[in-house]
Every structure is written in C-alpha cells, then in structure tokens.
Amino acid sequence: RKARLMAHEGIRFIVNTDVGRDVSVHELMDNYDAVVLCCGAKQPRTLNVSGMDANGVYFAVDFLTSVTKSLLNSNLQDKKCVSASGKNVVVVGGGDTGNDCVGTCIRQGCNSVVQLEMMEPLPKTRSKNNPWPQWPKVLKTDYGQEEAIAVFGKDPRVYCTTVKNIIADESNNIKQIVTVELKWERNPETGRFSPVEIEGSEKVLDCDLLLIAAGFTGCEEYVSQEFEVETTERNCIKTGKGSYKTENPKVFAAGDARKGQSLVVWAIAEGRECAKEVDRCLMGYSNMI
Fold it and tell me: What fold is seen in the domain 57-212?
C-alpha cells in the first residue's frame, strides 16, 4: 500500500536493477542531482579457516533466502533451495539469524543441529549492573532452540566455541568440522576482551551442512569503489560528522550502509534525516518534519 501511494506521488521505482551492472554509476551521477546509498550492510563475516570453499558451506542469508523463495514460489516443490533434510547441521552464530537457521533446518528434517556461539552464555536473571529500564541482558531461548529441544531433547547451543578447520572428502563435500573452545581474556593496555583458543580443546563433529550466521562487516566493497567514496574501519560508507553526506557532494548514505548492521527503526530514522539533508542541499531549505 505504501509503495503504491509513493508511486502515485511521483516516485519512480526501478526494481531488479544492479547498479554497476544494469546501470552505470556514471549514468546515475550524470542524470541526478543527488544519489543516496541505502544498500545495507550485506557483506557477511566469514570464517578465516581452511576449507571454506567446500560444498555444503553457506552464509546464512543465502541459505534462508533460497528456502523462502522456494516456499513462496512453489511451496518447496521446485527443489531449488538448499536442503538440510537428513543432514548433520552446524550453525555458527548465536543471534537471531542463527536461530532462524536452526528452526528452518529442523523443519526441513535435519538429522542433527548444533549452534556454536563464541560468547559466554548470558545470565538467566538481570545482573546488578543491568537495572531497569535498560534492555535486559539475560539468556533467552528462542523458537529455534525450543524446537531443537522438543525434537532432539537438548539445547543446540554450545558456548565459547568456534570452528577451527573444515574437513572435506575427495569430492570437496564437507563431512566434518574441527571445533575449539575459547576463553575471553582482557588486554591490560586497551581494556578490551578478546577470544583465546584453549589448547587441547579441539573436537571433531560430523557436518554435512555448515551455515555461517556470524553477522556482517559492512556494505559490499564494490559499492564504495564504484561511487569512489571512503569507508570506515568497519567497512561502512564514511560521512561527515553529524551529516549524511560523503566527501562527494552529490553522494549521501544512510541506514546500515552508513551505520553498520542495526535495526530497521534506525534505518527508517536515518532515511528521514538524510532526506532532510538532501532537501536542504538542493533547495537551500527544507520543510520536511
């Protein structure tokens, strides 16, 4: 409904178009007075381990997208999605996306599922330094873990553990992974905590499908390269302090592309504020609220 209203107001939507392939950046820059980059932070965080090129290793969003498309297009009858049916699945990442992977794999009929989390488990109740009205930093069991407990009789989460190596067969199909336990140590100079491997804690797990849900590292590199704009150390598009404008006066950025992976409410807020700034730059003033 909102899209129809916006189109009626004169906004032109050009869909299924990849800037840099279907339309050139130079064409956009020549034909428009301002370009706003709101392309998200879709560059997935990878694992720096050997065997990442093995068949059966997928980033979580690619896996979930394939399943959703197959469900919407054919009610899963086209067999075009990545399937966890009958497989031993390992999910790397303890966030919401990792939870979605766990739940989806169970509904597909996986043989087993393990969810690896680098961090320590949160407390079951609020700690003294996390009082109301702060957001409660407590352990939660989401629907994916609840379904795993119901089907397999145990919580799939394994804390302070990550993948150390991927083992593939002669056809380069993943068959096992080597995990290692971690401990978090504080750097006395910086005060920051970082994970350290615990020597001798390696374990071998059977794995036919490895799903990486370890977050995102910023916007896709070709976006900043094509538009010739700077990026931050987090690989997000760099803008001026308190501004949405890049060093190119015609290029702006907002949302996850500028801020990094976040929530949709931030994307909405940044989109509105960025629109005001573009309006002021082009018109000299803005009546936008």
Answer: FAD/NAD(P)-binding domain (3.50.50)
